Amino acid sequence: MNEELCIKIRENFTAMSIYKNPEKTNSLFTGRNLPSFVKDFLLKRYIDSNGDVNVVGLTSFLDLVIPKDPSMVKTALKSGRDLTLLCRFIINIDLVRNVKRFSIPDMGIKLTEGQIPDHVCGAHAADLSDGEKWGIIKICLLPDDVGKKFHVEMVDYKPFKPYSSVDINYLVNARKRFSTEEWIDVLISAMEYDPDGFDGLTQKLEFLTRLLIFVEPRLNAIELAPKGTGKSYVFGNLSKYGWLVSGGKVTRAKLFWDKQKQQNGIMKNHDFLAFDEIQTIEFQEPLEIQAALKSYLESGKTTIDNQEFSSECGLMLMGNIPLSQDRQPITNKYFDNLPKEFRESALLDRFHCFIEGWKLPRINTSMIFKGWTLNVEYFSEIIHELRTQNSYAQLYDQLVEIAPNTDMRDAKAVQRIATAYIKLLFPHWRTLEDVDINEFEIYCLNPALDRRGIIKEQCHYIDPEFKRYLSGINIKQL
Q1: Which of 27, 228, 236, 318 has the most CB atoms in a 10 Å sphere around its CB?
Q2: Do 198 and 230 meet the contact criterion of CB atoms below 8 Å apart?
C-alpha cells in the first residue's frame, strides 16, 4: 500500500490508527498466543507518534500480566500471591452448587477450580455472562467455607474493551474522504494484510467478503478454499465477538442449549461461529444437530428440549477443496467436499452466501502489512457496531425491487449480503441521495446475486427440484 494512503489513514483516524511493523514487534509476543485485537491494544500503550515501540515497557507489562510459562500461574497461587492477568477465560454456571465458575484454559485452570464471587458478578452482570471472555482479572487461592479445600477466586475484573463505545458518525465522515478503491485497501490493511499482495480488485473483494458475517446479523456463509489462504487467521484474530471451532467434537448442547448444565451454547452470545477445517470436525448426534440448524438458519430460533433458543449469530462453514493445475475446482459439485451431515439441499439452501476461496492467493510473508492502518481493536468494535445499524437495510429496500414470484429465501439472502456490503464498503451511505447507483450495482447487488446464485446452483446439483438460477431482483428505476 502506498505511503500516501497510510498518511491519509493516520490523518483521518488519528488515535484509532497504529503503525504496524511485524518484523520488529512479532518477536515481542513470542511464546504468548494472543489474537491481533489484544496485540494492538498492548502496542498502543507502548508506541509513540513515530511508530517506535517502547520495548522495555511492553516486555515488562507482558511479563507481569501474561506469563510465558502457564505453570507459573499455579505455582504463584500456591505460594499465596495474588495475580493480575490479561487473558481469555470461560464462564460456566454451576446450578447444583449455585456458583458461577470460570476456567483459564491457556493457563491450566479448570472450571472445577475457578469461582466468581457474588460481588464481582453483581458489579459486572452484563459482561460476565456464559461463554468466552477477554479481560484483566485478579485471582487468588482461597479456602472454602470448611477450610479443607481451596479454589481459585476472581477477586476483581476489568472487561477487555478499550473502546467502551465507537462513533459510527465519525466513521461515516472519515469514509467520505476516501475513494472506493482506497477504502478497500484500508479494510484489507486493517485485517493486517498488504493490499498490494492481491492480484487486482477481484481477489481483494473475495477476501473482504469474509467480513460480511462480522457486520450483518444471522448471515450464513460457506467458503471452500485451498489451504494457506488465511481463513483461520481472519476468524480467529480480528474480533473477540466471534468463535472459531477448529476440529474436535461438536454437540447440539455445545452449539445451542445444554440441558444438563442449564446454560446456553456458543451461538447465544457471539456475532458469528466459524467451523474451520469442517471435514475434520466430528458432529455427535448429527441428525439432531441438522434438525436444530435447519430451524435456526431459517428463523434465528430453534427448540431444544422444550427450551426455545434464539440468537443473531451467523454461521460460517470453512473447508478445503481440491484444485486442478489451473487452480479451479476439480469438480463443479462443490458441496461434495462438505461432511455428509451438511450435504442436504434443504439445509444448504438456508445458507446465504458462497465464497470462492480458490480465487485467493496463498498467504506469504510479503503479504503481511507494514505501515499505518486502523488498529484491530477499534476495527473489531466498528464492525461489531455496524451489525445493529438498521438504516442500511432500509436503504437496500429503497433501492431494490422484488418480483412477486421471487423465492423468499433468495430475496432474504440477497438483501443480507448486499446490506453487508453497503455497511462494509459504503458506511457513509445514509440516504438515497448519498448512493452511487453504479457502485451499488457493481459492489453490492451483483456480488450478492452471484454468491446466492452459487448456493442455488449447488443445491440443484444435489436435488434437481431446486431451481438452478434466481431471478426477480433488480434495481428500481429511481
Answers
A1: 318
A2: no
Checking phi first, is residue 472 left (phi over 0); if not, alpha (psi -120 to 50) or beta?
left
- Residue 147 — very low, low, confident or very high, per pLDDT cuts 50/70/90? low
DSSP label of 304: E
Task: State CA 220 to chain mean position distance.
Answer: 12
Tens digits of residue pLDDT in 81-109: 899 998 889 888 877 778 889 999 888 89
Residue 371 pLDDT level (bands cut at 50, 70, 90): very high
Taking Cα atoms as reference points, which of 313, 354, 357 lies closest to residue 214? 313
Q: Please give the tally of structural domains in the chain.
A: 3
Using CB atoms within 10 Å of the CB of residue 387, give its burial: 0 to 12 exposed, 13 to 18 middle, 19+ buried. Answer: buried
Residues 272/316, Cβ–Cβ less than 8 Å: yes
Domain span at 151: 71-159
Q: What is the pLDDT of residue 104?
A: 92
CA–CA dist 289, 309 (Å, integer): 13
- Cα→Cα distances 99→147, 157, 340, Å: 17, 17, 40
Alpha carbon distance 119, 44 (integer Å): 31
Give the other-Cβ count within 10 Å of 33's Cβ: 9
Q: Does an H or E element contain 424, and which?
A: helix 408-425
* Each residue's pLDDT tens digit, 400-438: 999 999 999 999 999 999 999 999 999 999 999 999 999
| Nearest-angstrom CA–CA distance, 131 and 361 | 34
State the pLDDT confidence band at 375, using cuts at 50, 70 and 90: very high
Q: Which residues of 238-255 are buried (b: 16+ CB within 10 A; e: fewer)?
A: bbbbbbbbeeeebebbbb
Give me the residue label for grid cell 478497500: 184
Q: Which residues contact 38 (CB under 8 A, 6 or more apart)?
A: 86, 134, 160, 377
Residue that terminates a domain, selected from 313, 339, 367: 367
The cell 446450578 sits on which residue? 95
Please check whether residues 265 and 333 belong to one and the same domain: yes
User: 282 vs 149, 246, 289, 464, CA distance in Å?
Assistant: 37, 11, 12, 29
Question: Are 335 and 243 members of one domain?
Answer: yes
